[in-house]
Specification:
This protein is mainly β and about 190 residues long. It has strands at about 5-15, 20-30, 35-45, 50, 55-60, 65-75, 80-90, 100-105, 120-130, 140-145, 150-155, 160-165, 175-180. It starts with a strand and ends in an 8-residue tail after the last strand.
């Protein structure tokens, strides 16, 4: 448990305590059950106290699929909520499985989520690749620039791809661009 983890922190005022502090978050893959987990705790400045850790399932791999490899966690600078990019795979089927680069954003209870046992996360597919391309989506970088969520990631084409969208713009979709591509030639003598 705990592979492909990512840690991030954001300064907030606790909604429960009304005190300033830091929310610490960790996203990671539970390889025993093939699911993406998110753990968080609140560190209170006053008294230097770290609260209890809470662990939730963001997405489960169903029917032999997996969810949560190569996770990358950031906090939305506006809402202070966690956003996780990760790799997931379909269950193997006759039609063939695929790798997916997905993002999960915490939206809270009753806010239109489509992931997690209580539907408190909104999950969205950014890109996909054939299962034979085992290195797809293994390196993910992400961050916020002027209110837009930006990703850099490796793709099945031995290339670097770039994707972004505007979460504040209703109906916006992911824009994906190929930054560069390298073809490898291997010969044995």
């Amino acid at each position: 448990m705990g592979l492909y983890n990512s840690i991030a922190a954001v300064e907030i005022t606790s909604p429960y305590l009304g005190q300033r502090g830091v929310r610490i978050g960790i996203s990671y893959w539970d390889q025993d059950y093939g699911k993406l987990l998110y753990a968080s705790a609140f560190y209170r400045y006053l008294g230097g106290h770290l609260g209890a850790w809470t662990v939730v399932t963001v997405q489960s791999g169903s029917g032999g699929g997996i969810a949560g490899q190569y996770s990358k966690l950031v906090f939305d600078p506006n809402t202070k909520q966690p956003v996780i990019a990760y790799r997931t795979r379909d269950a193997f089927e006759a039609s063939g499985a695929k790798w997916y680069l997905r993002t999960a954003t915490y939206v809270g209870s009753g806010q239109g989520g489509n992931c997690g046992p209580e539907q408190t996360w909104s999950c969205d597919t950014i890109d996909e690749a054939p299962i034979a391309s085992t290195d797809s989506f293994t390196n993910i970088g992400m961050g916020w620039i002027d209110g837009e969520l930006h990703y850099f990631y490796n793709a099945e084409t031995f290339g670097l791809k770039y994707a972004f969208y505007k979460p504040w713009k209703p109906g916006d979709t992911w824009t994906k661009l190929l930054v560069c591509q390298t073809f490898w030639t291997v010969s044995f003598k």
